Records
---
Amino acid sequence: MNESIDIRETGSRTGRPLLEIKDLAITFATSNGDVNAVRNAHLTIMPGETVAIVGESGSGKSTTALAAIGLLPGNGRVSAGQIFFDGEDIAHASEKRMIELRGNSIGMVPQDPMSNLNPVWRIGYQVKETLKANGLPSGPEDVAKVLTEAGLPDAARRAKQYPHEFSGGMRQRALIAIGLSCQPRLLIADEPTSALDVTVQRQILDHLDKMTSELGTAVLLITHDLGLAAERADKVVVMYRGQVVEAGPSLELLRNPQHPYTKRLVNSAPSLASRRIQVAKDRGLESSDLLTSDDVVVEKSKPAEVLQIENLSKVFKLRSGFARSTDFTAVDDVSFSIKRGTTTAIVGESGSGKSTVAQMVLNLLKPTSGRIVFDGVDTSTLNTKDIFKFRRRVQPIFQDPYGSLDPMYSIFRTIEEPLRVHKIGDAASREKKVRELLDQVSLPQSTMKRYPNELSGGQRQRVAIARALALDPEVIICDEAVSALDVLVQAQVLNLLAELQSRLGLTYLFITHDLAVVRQIADHVCVMEKGKLVETGTTDDVFDSPQRDYTKALLNAIPGATLMLPPEVA
Amino acid sequence: MTTYILKRFLQVIPVFLGATLLVYFLVFSLPGDPIAALFGDRPVNEAVAAQLRKQYNLDQPFWIQYLLYLKSIFTFDLGLDFSGRPIAAVLGEVFPVTARLAVMALIFEGFFGILFGLIAGLRKGKIFDATVLVASLIVIGIPIFVLGFVLQFFIGVQLGWAKPTVSAGASVQDLILPAIVLGLGSFAYVLRLTRTSVLENMNADYVRTATAKGLSRSRVVRVHILRNSLIPVITFLGADLGALMGGAIVTEGIFNIPGVGQRLYRAVLSGEGPTVVSIVTVLVLIYVVSNLLVDLLYAWLDPRIRYDS
């Protein structure tokens, strides 16, 4: 197996590698015995070089990186192999030695900016203790300098603030400041921007690139995003199920993947090059027309436009001081309509108001002004009973498949609940329906007896889809429904949604920040910025000739957008 | 912040009125004639009884009694108890004793509870952790009067390490054993709370990040694990001060401590309305103020919590 791995050296750099991982195996002790998280991992990073490890969650990419800085969780240990840092084997180094190395020799920028800063200490203090622990000057001006270098404006004042007063992007800058404050020779960046908006992501990565190349820092970048890896790294290492399956210079690996997994990864990586998922090829012209054209053939008797949003606005009152409030316009005069059987995507960054629109369409939030017309009826005129019926026809799928399923409910109960609430059928027919639904989302019927914690993220999202489908809705609102999933799983779920659409004539409203996903699923795109609709059009029009600068910025920010990907290798 | 504190103090007014009214009514409704009880087995001298009833306003209907009592509070003249001593003097005598006892108990449970909880959390699953967990469960399971008598007998009587009862002055030294008895239940609770909280924080992302910054283990524990873990614990400790003061009755009974609990118990038995209400009112005020302090402390410990704007 290992012999077949072709490690294509760049050859441009010579000398001793900064980090060399050899035959690394990492074992976790669990109640079911030892589990091998990583086996036979190889990795070489030369000084100043950027190497990316790509893989899905659970592939062992983060575990490998954490081992290099001695931060494996309590039940994990290096069971074989060596990790050489500048010639010294640190796989079994003492904790004392690791404390010496951490910070000033090996730095880390962690994944989630929301949870990686201690909420009870000021930002400046958290930078200061890093400098102090590594024996560097740590006065207020040193702290401000470190933060300024990481691109934080007004650093001296900002240093006195707490993490919760920072936005996600600013927190990530603070974390980058901390990671690079002691000028380490190796920086481990574990998904440093995956929690951020694309445009912020781009700024931060650009800044990180600039800083590390100025300092000559080698970077070990961990990411699930192949496009991002290829764009940022000199070399890419692909990990799958704890093993390195392929490694080589980024572009070469991307253009000519050898291992079957890498091929799948390259093919399913959403990018601008990909096209709208075409389903049901075997159904002939009619069904593909159904997906791509505006002339909808389903149920001609009903109005073609299932949802019309007219001049929709939502103003929130923000409390500012005692008994005063200021208005905050989250959604500002938004109008668009959705044709039956098509998919419309609303894209925008966090804070653009896209989720607020979704909540109003779902009748979970009252619009301040404007109308939402569903199937010819203004939804604000509905009484309690009508809303109940409306809910049956418009169903949501939410972002977080971990949070949106009740952990105490079995899968059967989760999917059956809407049927029971709406008093549909008897126990036997409901069970039959649940079985059908599980078939529809390609889950085995035995899943019924299981609980959410026993399922993977992709499986849970399938359950969420089955639950949404239980009442045979006409419209499904997907609020970041695939954002939390790995690319391969994401591709599977998107395919499933497209297939269900062609089979059941569903209408989707997709809320997402991910333009690559939009490209794959949507017929129409609405771009939102700061509550306003700035651009609408068919997906092809918007992607091929964006009119607004904001849209262009969003498109440019997609990782790997500039890279040439092989067209449809499949 | 000032607005918030002012608002909270305004809330004290209805709490004060409600508590005094309720307690006064309960004492008023107690069966039996408190004045007749004063004569014990001797025949009641009607003239004296009438004089006493007038003196303590017992000849008045409930509302008049209550309003007269309120008036006495606002004129800072709480009147006399049945033995003829000013109630204010009684309060001044018993509250310092119980406050000393409660604060000592609080220090005991806080210090050892947090220390043991921290060690148990950091060494999850090891012998110390297991022992301390079982022991704390036993302490929680045994009622305080059993624990009190057992410790009094073994430590006070058999071993002679401490005085089995407390002498008149109720010195700090005398109160050590009673304070431990009083604080044991909460100690077990603080320990478990700290342990859970430490376990939760140990796996927090920011703790891993702190380690990755190159901080020493002891600094990570002190600055990043302990402080964050203390937020719920301090909240509990603050609220517990009021509970300890009010809950000291049993402990004071066992060790014969001349504190609030004993005096309150006697006053309830003899139906001394004003004395009961005065003591309870002070307890209620301590409760309200310690809860306010907890909320302020909470905001100080956790900067994400802000009460205005």
---
Amino acid sequence: MLAPIWSQHHFLNKKMFFYILRRIPQTVLVIFGVTLVTFIALQIGGDPTYLFVSERASPEEIEETRKMLGFDKPLHIQYLIYLSNLVQLDFGDSLYYRQPALTVILETLPATIELTIFSMLIAIFGSIPFGILAAIYRGKWIDGSLMAIAMLGQSIPSFWLGIMCILYISLNVSWLPISGHVPFLMLIFQGEFIQAFKNLPTTITYLILPSFAVAFYSVSRNARLIRSSMLEVLSQDYVRTARSKGLSEYIVIMKHAMRNAWLPVVTIIGLEFGFVISGVVVVEVIFAWPGLGRTVFDAISNRDIPLVQAAVVVISLFVIVINLITDLVYAKLDPRIKL
Amino acid sequence: MKKLITGVAVVFGLIFPSTFTIAAPPDDTFVVGLPTDTIGLEPAQISSRHTANIMKHIFGQLYSVSETGSIDPNLAESYKISDDGKEYTFTLKEGLTCHDGEALTAEDAAYSFNRVADEDLAFTGNSAGFVYKSIDFKEARADSEREVTIVLGGPNHIALGLIAEVYVHCKDSYEKMSKDEAASNPIGSGPYEFVKWDKGSQIVLKKAANPPIPTNFENVIWRVIPEASTRTAELIAGNVDMITNASPDQVEAIDASSTAKVAKVQGTRRMYVGFHQGPEFAVTPGGAAIQKPEVRRALQYAVNVPAICENLLNAPCTRMTGIVNPNNAHPNLEPYPYDPEIAEYLLDQAGYPRDANGVRFEITLQAGEGRYLNDKNVVLAICQYLDDVGVKTNCEILDWSAVYIPLIKEKKAGPMYFIGSGGATWSPLYDMADLSAPDSGPNYTKWMNEEWFKGWKVINNTNDEYIIRREIDRMLEVFYNEGPWLHLYFQPDFYGVSNRVNWNPRRDEKVDLFNATLK
């Protein structure tokens, strides 16, 4: 007899399994909502046909093109056609690239995932020592300095920081490349593992500056969050008890205090993942990073409706999955929370 | 903790020192920095200048337009026109090969032309849209191994230049590919073979085994670098050899570097303010005023175009005398000077004196933002100049793609609007074709001048070069005196060029790397 799926995994218990099942109809509703909002928003911008005809197009050519692109049909029909194709996982063809929209998305997604993961790593592992140090040395010069840097990090726009990095780190001292991208994940997905790992060091050198520009804000915010969370936890009875048992300060901080201080940070990180994956457009433009954000930005400018719709669905799915994982991790970290 | 930090430091230390060195391109490679990626690599589907510039390195044309405006042999070595002017027969050069290794024959050329027109493939863009409709393309046929004939609906004086915009590809390979596959796997006939396209990042080409025209560099890389300041940084660092669309505000930085210089060129794009002549605007006071040629002429004196170029475009310019680019323009027409006193005098004479508030009439000038060089500030300056002579001008700056372009294409922008129209060096008729008929697509002003349009009948009914030129000049005089454009300038183009290469820009926004050399 087969055991239920949750019994095979430590992480996934029965409650969690049913919680995931309950989220599926919500996901469908969210996807429907975002496609509808995107469709309406793009249509408010007017008829996109004009961007697909030559500069000297005649009225006949414009009309023919409109018909060919399907923009001559009533809006509700256009949307229903789109939805019926979507349930068959057909996102349509990109009007500009003349390729399936999903193919274009999947070609640019790995670069954005690379940037997102690297930025998140910087955001997480940069903010933890900052936050803990500031909490431990509360009111001292270390705390003041770190919080001043954090304030700066939350005030500096990422595009300005990116340009300054290019100017001083790349152009003046030539420590890192100015712009560009060397693929890693894409090669992994294509099964070219040897080439991917050969590329990895160079990939990382190209990743450092854009990731830093993306993550600096997050490092600053998370550091402040961890600091305040740690301060609250450090004054709790159980921390005093741990100290009175004679445990080292390292164990008290990292094992006892940190676990509870993590809770608000986990929530923020979950939200941030969605923000980063869809919101790094400016940094992608500055560093010529061939990612999803730039593709969507160009698609919106070019009124490439199928491509925008496909990107929105993919990004939404990502955000939904990340939020789900966040909820599950949250429950795991704090057993008092019921799913 | 100390162990962890040491471990991380060792790993980083091992990885990075060897990779931090940024290498300049090798001597056999030319790297171009572009602001946008190509829109696919389908030779029959081209609707942007950047895409066309990449494609012309992968695909040959039967003839091609040179930087001086001459139309020179490319894949073909000669051509002849039938007596009725409807058939152009091209003789291909000997020994041409496709990038798939097959011999390139007239059958490939005929296939390329017919494929563009294939209704099942439903191509749009420059060839299928503009070129084929302009020449009234009927069919292409292979007459022999090396002779291909293009059949038109009627005689056309600019057919050769337009045929030169169609790219020849290779039948066997394209017949095997679906439309989707063809969009990213170009099998060309030109001097460079396609190697790879990393979307949003770069397109890599290598010299073809048997290039139809001579070329110097073994490899060409087109790097996509959207941000102007990043392109500038890459150029100054020596990582790219040439950048297009260099930002005018970065000219000083580039020129001050020891590694690159800016090459400015007066482009062929004609920037103008259109005076809408349609009845829909004639009911407004300003719209009614600009129906009068005297008022339009007066306003030509009101705008200081050289000052706009100098101060807002960072490039000196000569004001245009009309619709045609300088090398083909009327030889005796002088640009209107900036003279606000004459403007005011002519407006008084036209029946529009200043009222008690100093206003002659009120009018709206519409423009899109972000498409042309410093467009918003140029338009604001024009509005100010017109205000100065008593024409109260409301500047409406609109979103380019969502709002302005639909208005323009539907001929509803106005009563005055600002726009640029692509031009050419190879024929005055190409430039004039904006107004080839009262209902032609780019006649956004709905100008109906009989003297102008009867000129087309004369030109279309003769092959006599003298008569054609005489008629062109007559039409250009009509346009100068009564035309529907406020003449501005030919948009300057800025290219950043590395000191390690010799490369010269063209006026017509086309990029040729064939003659580029290493210094």
